Amino acid sequence: MHILIIGAGFGGLRVARELRKKAPSADITVIDRKNYFEVTYATLRTLTDPGFANGAGRIEYAAFLDAEFIQDSVVDLQQNSAQLNSGRKVDFDYAVVATGTSYPSLPIAKSETSLLLAARNEEIACANQELVKNQAIRIVGAGAVGAELAGEIKSRFPETEVELYDLGDRVLQHLTPKASGIAADLLKGLGVHLHLNTPINTDDDHSGLTYWCRGPKIQSGFIADDDIKTATGELKVDSYLQVQNQPTWFVVGDAAALADAKMGATATHQAMFVAENLSRLGRSKSSLGRYRPQPFMSLVPIGRRSGVAQFKSFTATWQPVINWKQKDLLIDYALKQVGAR
To answer: Is the model's pTM score more than 0.85?
Structure first.
């Protein structure tokens, strides 16, 4: 059985790791545009401090990946084959789409152009230098990325003026109003100026640096059939995490149209589920497991010492919970999850 994994982030790498244990005879091929894994939720802190965690948040796939690796991108996916940008064609029995999202408006969060580890390290260093020399920072978008970025910058550079804008009436709108209110108070306590219900005038004379933290994009453009996509590009899946009307394709992570939160932990959970189902297929079992969406959970750092957590509808700021993530932003935990430690 040949399994193609498209995308080597949290979900794709965990599928590969689990398959090595559950289906050791399977041939596994992993494709990604870049040659390194990055703990993306630690990127905002490394922007303000490139030496954070001694650069452990990025590591080349060659250092740990136990599968065939192709540095390339898929331009067309068919039932049992993938056409690559290089012109190569890869045949497979099953494919796992784990391409996640990109951030065209904020490429420093997930690079669009730095496909080699050395280039990415240089990109982070240059972005940090640009940040350091600016005393006026404007952030557009008060979701998880924007709020976290505002807190990181203000914690690292307390004298820098940081203004956070959003068209909505509260920060972190994916959380409960209570959690949003706590986050807003924490941001204000750090000295961040909040401008809610406020559009940005791009013609003003702002002379500082602007970060656009909005508009994440699902990476599913290589799939031509729009009938199996949502309006935002997610792939419609059944209870087995197989794409509707495409039983040879599975999906994990942000690209799956699921109620689960879009975060590394849920991608990892989905990956373990898909690996188990693939192993059952490899043993010719006819009964696949049915996926159960995960309870909502989110933990957003606000600065370097505080944050807000939400578990289902319960909101917490209990310091041991916050410290669990703040210690190293879970870099070591993430590397262990994908087999890099």
So the answer is: yes
Asked whether residue 99 falls in the same domain as residue 9, the answer is: yes
d(CA 282, CA 25): 9
Token reading at 229: 């996509």
Same domain, 207 and 301: yes
SS (H, E, C) 208-240: CEEEECCCCEECCCCCCCHHHECCCCCECECCC
Residue 60, phi then psi, degrees to nearest 5: -70, 140
Q: Are strands 89-91 and 81-84 parallel, antiparallel or unpaired?
A: antiparallel
Tokens of 289: 């497991």
Query: What residue type is assigned to position 181 of the chain?
Result: G
Encoded tokens for 186: 């924490």
Distance in angstroms (rounded) separating the CA atoms of residues 239 and 292: 8
Question: Taking the CA atoms of the chain, what radius of gyration do you get in angstroms?
Answer: 20
Residues 237-265 have pLDDT tens digits of 999 999 999 999 999 999 999 989 888 98
CA–CA separation, 57 vs 39, rounded Å?
Answer: 5
Taking residue 178's Cβ as centre, other Cβ atoms within 10 Å add up to 13
| Half-sphere exposure of residue 267: CA atoms within 13 angstroms, side-chain side | 26
Domain with 305 in it: 129-214+296-337
Q: How far apart are CA 146 and CA 11, in angstroms?
A: 24
